[in-house]
Protein: 5-formyltetrahydrofolate cyclo-ligase
Organism: Vibrio rhizosphaerae
Amino acid sequence: MHQHNMTRADLRKQIRARRKQLSDAFQQDASARLIRQLCHLPELETSHHVAVYLSTDGELSTRELIEWLWQQGKSTYLPVIHPFSTGQLLFLRYTPDTAMVQNRYGIAEPQLNKQLILPTRQLDLIFTPLVGFDASGHRLGMGGGYYDRTLVPWFKNRSGAKPIGLAHTCQFVEQLPIESWDVPLPKIVTPDKIWDWESNRLSQGQMM
């Protein structure tokens, strides 16, 4: 497969198809193994406010992760499409009793309630969905740019919530076609391993 010649749209289609073929049993096993990996994530240990998302379209299931975060006593938040700031996300507190509605993409999200909004900069971690990722930590999103906009403060000056991608192993490609504005994620967690580019970049920086 010549990934270099494929457009982002082609790759998106191909990886989504690959992901959708995974069986329920595989998905269940993958989500249990993901939680085992996350037990070794130092950032999670020190985080109180954690944003996650409801999996859809063959994504690695986050249902078990959310329950586990609740058990760990973490305040958990879900993204909600901003009602009037185009392309922006809000993050609302999510508990077992949160009233849910469907957004324009048919994905469940908490019903808009000002009391439940936490300013994004007050989140500690944002578990970030992705369609594909490559060996440098670049992320291929769904194409809406919601998370790219949300993560600008972190990418620009490492302020605010730290993004960590979640993905199935089959979503890996050697090299994504990237744009000049694409910024790689510091870490991506799959059921098999924690991909950590941050410490590589730090050690390279110190050697210079």
